[in-house]
Every structure is written in structure tokens, then in C-alpha cells.
Amino acid sequence: MYFAKELLDKCSSLRKKWEDEVRKLVSRFGERKDRFSTVSDWEIKRLYTPEDNADMDFERDINFPSQFPFTRNIHSTGYRGRLWTYRMFSGMGTAKDTNERWHMLLKNGQTGLSTAFDFPTLMGYDTDSPKSAGECGRCGVAIDTLEDFKVLVKGIPLDQVTTSMTINPPATVMWAMYCACAQDQGVGLEKIGGTIQNDMLKEFIAQKTFMLPPEPSIKLISDTVEFGAKYVPKWNPISISGYHIREAGSTAVQELAFTLRDGMAYVEDVMERKGMHPDEFAPRLSFFFNAHIDFFEEICKMRAARRIWAKVMRDRYKAENPRSQWLRFHTQTAGCSLTAQQPYNNVVRTAVEALSAVLGGTQSLHTNSLDEVYCLPTDHSVQIALRTQQIIAEETGVANTIDPLGGSYFVEKLTNEMEEAAWEYIEKIDDMGGMLAAIDQGYPQMEIADAAYKFQRQVESGDKVMVGVNKYVTEEAEECPILDIDEEVERNQLKGLERAKQNRDSKAVKRCLDELRSACKKGENVMPSCIEAVKQLATEQEICDVYREVYGVYQDPGLF
Amino acid sequence: MVKRTLRVMVAKPGLDGHDRGARVLARSFRDAGYEVIYTGCHQTPEQIVEGALQEDVDLIGLSCLSGAHKTLFPKVVQLLKDKGAEDIAVIGGGIIPKQDFQTLYDAGVQEVFTPGTPLESIISWIESHVQPREGL
Asked: In sequence order, what are the residues at sequence separation of 6 or more whose Cβ sits closer than 8 angstroms to the Cβ of residue A16?
């Protein structure tokens, strides 16, 4: 029992009295709306009281930081021990352009790197593929061979800075290049730290950056988890991501449930395919959530996520090491909450969202720049976004105490409600035969499409307000400077690729690709042959073509 | 004579997977009473045009959020011309900076819709600009 019975009784009688008064007022004056709800349309009551927390058990549901179920935080000192990592997602143009941006960010006090690749790189195509026309360097940095990667990390001490890479189908290839660069710098693989996103299930569900069918996609992921556990122990081989699920239009509960159920699918695959115990690999699983505009809903989502994952790991998979039960996560503020109209307002949205991520206990954070609704951000807008984090961390005082909203009647109640609703989804997907089966049936995809369509309708009707879009609209268009990626970038990248192909030992490349093909066919771990192949300057696409040849290609079913 | 229902293709050229807008639009077109063909992501301009001809569509709505619109949208219009199907209207949407609009108009893209555009205004644009193609 969280509250003593006397308190609850007292509260109940006081509430009834208060409600009588409120009822009179509301019947005379009304309220602003008939129904109040979150951005996900979760209904919110007028007031929360101890009665809403009556079913709670302090030790079972809340407890202390670093104590199961980690609702309040995984670390015993929260941000007092160490602040979250300021990790701005960045990449544009050539490797050289991005390397310059990275050095600028590190000089400005950024504490970790995060790589945005361009679409050909994300999809496993080289710049000279016909499919890549017009895409080079536009949404991130273009990487074709190890030569590009060496330029990307030039002057970055890979034993000191951790790097996250948002890369999915070709994650093995980009990770192999990172490993090769570390070895080139004389840094052992046991010393490098970072993350590859490498979460294919959310690609099928939401982000749609896919290459191979689901089954072999999961096989490659389990290879990286196994390789990491053996040789790259400080690396997070996967970042199980809700971010893109949310950006695709899901509710907060859907983001929570689908992400954790994806995580469970990965755990199960590594256990079955590799015969590993969760405690051998689960401490390196990491997560990635969205911080959307509805402040409390986001905080509660993050608190609920920690609690659900702890229970799942302990009770379903029998993980004993607390680190296997920890849900460690990165957060990015919500790109989809930004508006092209009156773009300077985006600074405010991002600040509020970042604050929710901090109060939710994130381990690292990317804050969107005000112009990201148009293009990749300019140096100036990135700096404002980074400073937003630094102001929250070092001026506002919110990092002085752990989980400052813990114990709020509302926050505890909403955390419980979101956990409960997420479990319903998780159990439904269990009943369907797991996440792969659910994806095959289009279930999470259509749940998200329904939510996205409903939200759009609510915006159109004015039920959900977007300032500058459907309310407080100004006639005069407000402009902000735009970063243009020169077409020269594509020409330079093509030249570099041609040079690398000319200067390499083509027999060695062929031999490495043959070895990789054979590893794929035999079901062996692909990482060792992948690393050898990139060292011989095999291109990203050459390696991915081997995967495509052996495993086949996935086509978007085009559900809407 | 009763007017034939409009046949509309929502297409995703290029390599980006940002399909939220495209799919919401496909649904709202369906709700508006059009016959809707949605291509799914990662289509080449060739695949889009081939599909549009096979499906006898009256309008192609292109959605691109990767920044490759200046290459991909004109390519679709050009391929339609090459196939003698320039009467299929082409509109575009996505993350498209204002300074690129004129390039797209010059290439034959009839209208460009960017984030924040109400669904209703896209549909009313279609109602006033697109007719079922003749001889179908």
C-alpha cells in the first residue's frame, strides 16, 4: 500500500466536497474544452490525487534509483554523477564537410558524436548507382569506401569519443569501417565505444529503410550482437528505436509498446540463434525514444519504459545482472512537431521537448535545430540547439535531483496507465506469434497509420493546435537561412569512388567478397569477413550486393 | 453522362522512407472518393511512370523528403512526355524549399504542396485542375 488507509479516506471525502464546488462552477462557466487529452489523444483528468495512486506499492512500482524496476533512474546518482551526453546527430555532403562540422561541435562542448548518412549509404547503394542520382550528401554524409570513413573520423580520437551511427540495413558495413579506422589509429576494438542503430524491425514498421527480408535482417543483427559481446565490449550493437515509429505518426503508447516488443524479438533471436544467455549480451542493448511535444506524456512514457523492460528481462528472459535489466536510452526531440511556418518557434518546442527527455532520465540527447523542417541545419541553428541542452543542464537546476517528478499523483498515475496500455499491445503481439508475424500481417504498420490519420484530422478540425499552422497564423511568411548542398558534392564523391576503385587490389576485393558470401551461405558470423572486405576497399554496395544475392530483397508492401 | 471517378497515384520516388505524409494523403484521397494507387517507398521514376500508365491514372502525386526532388520530379515528367502521356497531371510535396519551386514548375510539375498544407486544400486544387483523362 502506497498511502495509509486513513489518508485515502480523508482524501476521498475532501475530493467529494471539492467536486461539488467544481461541478457548480463548470455548469455555470464551462471549461475550455469538453475533453482534455494528450497529443496522442490519451484522456487527462482535471486533477489527480492520492486516490489515483491507491493501488501502487512503493517498492514494487517506484523504489529508489538503481533499484528494480528502475522507474526513477538506472543510476544511483542520476545527473549529479554525470550529465547526459550532448549528442547532436549530424552529417552532410562529403566526409570532409561532416568532419569539419564534428570538430565544430566538439569545440562547442558536444560530448559525443552521432552520424547522419545520406540515403544511398543508408540503403546500401554507392554514389555511382543509378538509384543514387540526386541524393548524394543531401540528408547526411556520403560514404562509399573506407577511404571516405577515414576522412570522416580524421583527428577524432576513437578511444576517447563515442560515436553513434544511424545506419540500419548496412550496419555491419559501417561498423566494420569504424572498427577498421580504430585499428588504423592504433586503438584496439576493446577500447572503442559507440552505437549502431541496427534496428531493422522498426524499419519494416515505420522508417522504411529496408534492404533484406525480415528474417535475414535479424540474423545480421544477431551477428553484430555476438561479435560485440566477444570483441567490442563497450559498443552498443543496437539502438532499439521508437523514434521513427513516433515520427510515422504513432501514439506514445504505441511507440512504447512496439519498441519494447521489438527489443524482445532481438533478445529471443540472440538466445535461440546464438545460444547466448541474456546476461552475456543484454547489458549492451540500448534504446532510442522520441521526445514529443506533450510534456508529461513523454516523461511518463520513459519512466514506464524502464519499468516494463526491467520486468521483461527479469521475468521473461531470466536475466540476473541488473545491467541486463537496465533500459538505457538516447532521445531526440520530435522532428514531426516542428513547423515550417514561423520556424523560430521551433526553438521553443525543442526546448520543452528536451526538458521532458531530461526529466524522463535520458542517457543522451539530440535537440533538433529550428531549420530541420526545411533541410539539414546550418552551423548557427545547430549551435542554438546544442546550447538549449547546455542551458537545461547547467543553468536551470533540473539536473540537481533525481526524477524530480516522481511521486506526483499525476505522473505516477499516467506512468501506470501507459505501462498497462503498452502491456496490452505487447500481449496482443505475443498472441499473434511475435513481432515478425505481426509485421507480416501489417498490424503495427496499420495501427500507426490509423493514429497518424486521426491526428491529421484533429489538426485540420482545430482540435489539436499547431501554432502557426492552424492557429495564430501570420500572413507574412517568416524565412530562415537554408543550408544548400552543392551539386559539386556528388561530382567530388563520384571522383573519389572511382579513384578508390582504381587504386585497390581487385583480386583481394573479390576474394574477400567470396569469403563473405560463403559466410552468409553457411550461416556464420559475417563481421570478420566484412571487416576484411572494407579494409581491401570493397565498397558499401559491393558488400550489400552480396547480402542481396544470398538473402533476397524486401519490397515495401505499400500499406496505407 | 456520369463523370468517371478520378484515378490518383501517390508515389514515393527516391530512397527516403518518410511516407507518413504520402500515406495520410492516400487515405484522404480515398475518403474523397478517388481510386487510389499507392506505390510504396523507393520507386525509381521509371517504375512510377510504368505503374501510372498501367493503372491509367489521371494524376501522380510525388512525395520526396530527401532533398532529391530537383532530380526526381522533373525525371518523372520527362518520362511521361517520352511515353506520350503528358496529360497525366503531376504534383509534388515534401520538404521542398521555396527557392526550388520555380525549377519544378518549369520542369512541368503543376503544383507543389509543403508541410502544413491542409488536406482539403490539396483536394480542392485537384477538383479544379484535374479531369478524368479522355479516351479511357
From this structure: none
Residue A467's φ and ψ, nearest 5 degrees, are -65, 130
Pick the CATH number of B7-129 from 3.40.50.1820, 3.30.70.890, 3.40.50.280, 3.30.70.1350: 3.40.50.280
d(CA A258, CA A253): 8
What one-letter code names the amino acid at A138? R
**Using the 8-state DSSP alphabet, how is residue B99 labeled?**
G
User: Cβ separation of B116 and A139 shorter than 8 Å?
Assistant: no
Is there a contact between A135 and B15 if contact means CB atoms under 8 Å apart? yes
Contact flag A119-B68 (C-beta cutoff 8 Å): yes
B97 contacts in A (CB within 8 Å)?
A: 374-375, 482
Q: Where are the domains of chain B?
A: 7-129
The full set of domain ranges for chain A reads 5-58, 63-461, 504-551
Q: Looking at the domain A63-461, which fold is it?
A: TIM Barrel (3.20.20)
Element holding A107 (H helix, E strand): helix A95-107
User: What is the ipTM score, two decimals?
Assistant: 0.90
| pLDDT of res. A475 | 82
Say which residues have a Cβ less than 8 Å from residue A180's Cβ, sequence separation at least 6: A146, A149, A531, A534, A535
Measure CA of the first residue to CA of the last residue in chain A; give whole Å.
46
Long-range pairs of A521-525 with CB within 8 A, sequence gap ≥ 24? A521/A550, A523/A219, A525/A223, A525/A226, A525/A227
Please compute, for residue B124, the number of CA atoms within 13 A of its CA located in the half-sphere on the CB side.
Answer: 5
B136, pLDDT greater than 80: no
Q: A235 has which bridge partners? A: A194
Residues A480, A344 contacting (CB under 8 angstroms): yes
pTM listed for this prediction: 0.96
Distances (CA, A) of A90 to A75, A138, A386: 28, 12, 12
Three-class DSSP labels, A7-37: HHHHHHHHHHHHHHHHHHHHHHHCCCCCCCE
The phi-psi region of residue A44 (left if phi > 0; otherwise alpha if psi is between -120 and 50; otherwise beta) is beta
Q: For the segment A509-525, what is each residue's pLDDT rounded down to a tens digit?
A: 999 999 999 999 999 99
Quick one: residue A361, left, alpha or beta (phi over 0 = left, psi -120 to 50 = alpha)?
left
